[in-house]
Amino acid sequence: MENASEKGLEGTGLELPKNRHGNLKSASTDQNLLEILRDIKVSKSPAVINYGASWCGVCRQILPAFCQLSNNFPKLSFIYADIDECPETTQHIRYTPTFHFYRDGERVDEMFGAGEERLHDRLWLHS
């Protein structure tokens, strides 16, 4: 399962697809997530944040697809944030996985649960 010394995507213990566009990041601390959220607000570029947990079976099921989809939408920023690694900034997350979609620096949509086709459609809509 999770390697205690690794955090973020590496800490999931999953074999994940390679990201070809450099648009996939991992937030492994509260400070790191705050910086990413600030960058989203300032840059106003479209982004999606996947709030998950390494112990969540549904999160582990959708994460490889999330990483693969980052290759299909190079203009979108993809961020994975583990709620256990960012406890202060993810207090508002009540269900994992939760996806937040950003456009022009503002959160414009939210999706709960997994579903690769549903996620793809939302990404297409917000890219």
UniProtKB/TrEMBL annotation:
Residues 5-127 form the Thioredoxin domain. Signal peptide: none annotated. Gene3D superfamilies: Glutaredoxin (3.40.30.10). Residues 1-25 are annotated as: Disordered. It comes from the Eukaryota. InterPro entries: Thioredoxin-like_sf, Thioredoxin_domain, TRL33. This is Thioredoxin domain-containing protein. The lineage of its organism: Eukaryota, Viridiplantae, Streptophyta, Embryophyta, Tracheophyta.
